[in-house]
Each structure stands twice: as structure tokens, then as C-alpha cells.
What we know:
Largest sheet: 8 strands, mixed
Number of helices: 11
Structural class: alpha/beta
Number of strands: 8
Order of helices and strands: EHEHEHEHEHEEHEHHHHH
Strand content: 5-15%
Helix content: 55-70%
Amino acid sequence: MSIGFIGCGNMASAIIKGITESGIIDGKDIYIFDTSPSTLENASAKYAVNKCQNAREVVRLSEYVILAVKPNVLSTVLNDINIVLEESGAVLVSIAAGKTIDFIREHLSHDNKIIRVMPNINAKVACACSAYCANTEVTDAEKKEIERLFAAVGEIIELPESDFPLFGVLSGCSPAFSYMFIDALARAGVKNGMKKDLALKIAAQTVLGSAKMILESGSHPYELIDQVCSPGGTTIEGITSLQADGFETAVHNAVDSAVKKDKLL
């Protein structure tokens, strides 16, 4: 299996790192191109993959082509690779935010196999939550290959494309919400006399473990909350304080605001 990357930015680099370090694909079967010579050279040297002269060469050499370019240049790239893509029959995989399968198809002159994947920033630590959808030309076997590839950087689920805007908020925006919560916990530790680096480590590891507990225990979050809250204890005191200050409402409002903004873009 050969795979190509058009664009070698942060997300592409995270995916390349994941699939090479996990042994899913050897570097000799990966082809890359970026308009920045230094970015191209650095990625090629760091991951021992093949650098190409242009995007068309990537398409000619690859069975799967991942478009990891900014959304505002996606149409230009599609126009550039259109003819070569028709000849190669490669599966086209776009991770460009906000660009639908229909948008991609409108810029091509043939019925190519198109998959849209939405990863999040946590792919950089192989812990992303990604979603994908595909057009009818894509086979089940090809979907499985995409699941295998993106599993190297976290979890991936198939979703209807109509759910992508909401997924983009729940998965794409929420890392920032989570970082904010972790930082707030750490600053509260500082307020009460602990050094920031130590408080941050404690807060981050505890949130990491709490997420793992939800995913692996099969318990509802509130069941786990009840397990931690002792009668008349410190945890229930903190919980009631969060509720009184509108913690859940603030989270709901943040998601609603992000969804509303997405519809305006």
C-alpha cells in the first residue's frame, strides 16, 4: 500500500509519525509534497519518506492521497491534480476543515473515490478523536484501510456528513475547552499554595485518567461522580459549588455558541 500527502503541516506530520512509528506503513511507501521547500525537506528527513517535486507526482505514485492543505487553497490543488487523479484512480482523502465531499467533487471532472476525515489536534500525541464519511464510490475495504491508518493517531468513527459540523465542535473545539479547564484547576492549585508546574501536571494527569475511566468502565459519568463523593465530604462540596456557579450551563453555552458560529462560516 502506498500513501501520499499533499501538504506536510502539523496534522500531516502527526499522521505520518503515527503510521510510521506503528509500523502500519513503511516510510519508503509514503510520498509527500509541500509548497514550502524547508517543510518538505524537514518532513522527508525526519520520517524517512519520499519527497516529490509536485502534487501531481504524489498522486501518480500513491494509492491513497491525503489532502492536508488549508481550505482556502483546496480548490487550486484539486484543479492541479484533476487529470492525474483520473488516470491513477487513487482514493482521495481530504482533511480540509469545512470542505464537503460535494465541494471536492465539484472541482473534479470524474467520479473519483472521496473520503473526508476530520481529526483533531490530539493526533499530535496519537490520541485524536476523528470522524470520516465517504461517497458511494468508496468500497468497504477502502474504508477499513482509512480506519486502520487513522487508528494510528487515535480513535476514528464513521459519521454521516450531516453530523460533521456538530462533531467539529464536540471534537475540534473541545480540546481547547479541556485545556482551559485543566489550566483553571492548576491555577486554583497555585492560589492555594502549590507551584504551577506541579499543579498543572496533577490536573492534566487526573483529567487524562478521568477520561480513561469513562471510556473503559462503561459507567455513566454521574455514577462515577457518586463514587467519588463521600457524604459531607470535600468533593460534594466542590460539585455543588460548580453547579451553583453554572458550570454545566457554561459548557452548554460554549457548545451552542460554537455551533452557531460554524453555521455562519
